[in-house]
Amino acid sequence: MAGSTADRAEQSVARLLRSREVRLTAARRLVVRALAEADGPMAAADLHRTLRRQIPLSSLYRTLAVLEQSRVLTKEHDGLGVARYELAEWLAGHHHHLVCDSCGEVRDVTVPPQAELAFTNLVGRIAARAGYRATGHRIDIEGTCRACRES
After folding, report:
1. CB under 8 Å to 42, separation ≥6 — which residues?
2. CATH number of the domain that residue 56 is part of
3. Is CB count within 10 Å lower at the N or C end of the chain?
4. What is the spatial distance between Cα 133 and Cα 131, in angstroms, rounded to a whole number?
5. Which domain holds residue 19?
6. Do 98 and 25 share a domain, yes or no?
7. d(CA 98, CA 75)
8. Pairing of the two strands 73-77 and 96-100
9. Which pTM does this prediction carry?
């Protein structure tokens, strides 16, 4: 599939929503594109700052809810407890997060394949000890971002 990451995400979301008989409105399209172009998960306030001229705040919250219910987005909470949204793993690919304990910034990070395999094996062993079968994992690495350390 040609095109940018945002184009590919939008096309995939359009197919999924169509299969669920949910419309891909202009607001939903803008949110998908903004998250596809972001460096990491975004809070509703961040999305509003980015899209305020195109989507009113009340519509943004409804849009986020519909996309989350449709499994297009996942909602996580950062180190400060703020809800942040990102494209679901099936769209964005498998990745982990760097989370700043000071400002709450969350950045996507992909680890080398060998390290990812080690994480997967470790998660599987931990889950098995508790009687679970692991189906996936997410790792948040907490710390302090460069901007906060320098200020």
Report:
1. 34, 35, 50, 84, 85, 86
2. 1.10.10.10
3. N
4. 7
5. 1-90
6. no
7. 16
8. unpaired
9. 0.82
